[in-house]
Specification:
Helix content: 40-55%
Distance between the termini: 79 Å
CATH architecture of the largest domain: 3-Layer(aba) Sandwich
Shape: elongated
Number of helices: 12
CATH class of the largest domain: Alpha Beta
Length: 334
């Protein structure tokens, strides 16, 4: 008599092949993306798999192939809503291409060595880095182990490492032109320049545009490109005579608007025009109505995965750079 509480034997591809009346190789091809298999065979295999409750063991398959379908996502700044949008697009599009994301959150203060070890233990097929943490050690170690890497919005030029960057120069130039064109006499840029490559690029382009027409630009340096820092700095803007402000991200700009509203009781802030960058969902809320630049997370994700898959096929290709466009979103703040 069989014990009803005894563990159920795991269903194997042999079981599916037997029930479907096909070879085990046909079962394997059915569950391998882009493999050649007839529609009739595919239907038989899927029907048998559903009846038996069969699931492909991707980890076991990776042991055979010496490489999994996992792609490491190394990210930081998860408090910023833009980062969530970015991760959502990357994960969705990786899954659409039969790749499986593994998220490794980090910060600028953490040693990436532990993340290197985790990635290597999982035999990842590639790595996408959006973190502001210095990636050089990670890139070198992954390169040694033939793991392709793509960096998003990072400035380091590393051999065999591809990059996707936002058109930050255009954003900086357009922000300056918009503020001055709207009548700003004392424009400023708010950022934490030592942290972010994108922030430095936006600042540089804004300054260059100002220098071209002999306009002085003030730089308001914060410890972080965060909501809290923007909110804390807001009450002092009037004291400095600033009437036009380019915040290098929306998260910070929303903090500035809240800080000014707490001091002056008006929305949008009276006497100061504010522009952000990223077009996070909150930018369009009634409390903010923030003029900003949309950064296309979907386009960036597609470009990053295209580069990653290309480098999987040709590991020794020269490092490539893809620049994605920005789009101005006009609202009431500027």
């Amino acid at each position: 008599m069989t014990d009803s509480k005894s563990p159920r034997r795991a269903v194997t591809s042999h079981d599916v092949a037997r029930l479907a009346g096909v070879s085990r190789a046909a079962v394997s091809r059915t569950f391998t993306p882009n493999a050649s298999v007839s529609e009739e065979t595919r239907e038989k295999v899927h029907k048998a798999a559903r009846e038996l409750g069969y699931r492909v063991n991707y980890l076991a398959r990776s042991l055979i192939n010496q490489r999994s379908d996992l792609v490491g996502l190394v990210v930081a700044g998860l408090d910023n809503p833009f980062r969530i949008l970015q991760i959502e697009q990357l994960t969705r599009r990786l899954l659409m291409r039969n790749l499986r994301p593994i998220l490794l959150p980090t910060s600028c203060s953490e040693d990436v060595g532990s993340f290197i070890e985790q990635l290597l233990h999982y035999s990842v097929s590639g790595v996408i880095i959006t973190s502001d943490a210095p990636p050089t050690a990670l890139c070198e170690e992954c390169s040694i182990n033939s793991i392709p890497i793509v960096m998003i919005n990072k400035g380091e030029k590393i051999p065999l490492v591809d990059r996707v960057i936002n058109d930050d120069a255009s954003a900086g130039r357009q922000a300056f032109a918009l503020l001055v064109g709207a009548g700003a006499k004392r424009p400023a840029v708010m950022l934490a320049p030592q942290v972010s490559f994108t922030a430095r690029q936006r600042l540089g382009a804004f300054r260059a545009a100002a220098e071209a027409v002999s306009v002085a630009v003030e730089t308001i340096e914060l410890s972080l490109n965060s909501y809290e820092c923007g909110r804390a700095a807001a009450p002092h803007l009037g004291e400095r005579g600033i009437d036009g402000l380019f915040c290098v991200n929306d998260y910070m700009a929303c903090g500035v608007i809240d800080g000014l509203a707490e001091k002056h009781g008006t929305r949008p802030p009276a006497g100061i025009r504010i522009i952000g960058h990223d077009d996070i969902p909150q930018a369009g809320w009634g409390a903010y109505q923030l003029t900003t630049f949309a950064q296309p997370c979907d386009v960036q994700a597609e470009a990053a995965i295209d580069l990653l898959e290309s480098r999987m096929r040709v590991p020794d290709a020269p490092a490539r750079l893809t620049t994605t466009p920005i789009h101005l979103i006009r609202r009431k703040s500027a």
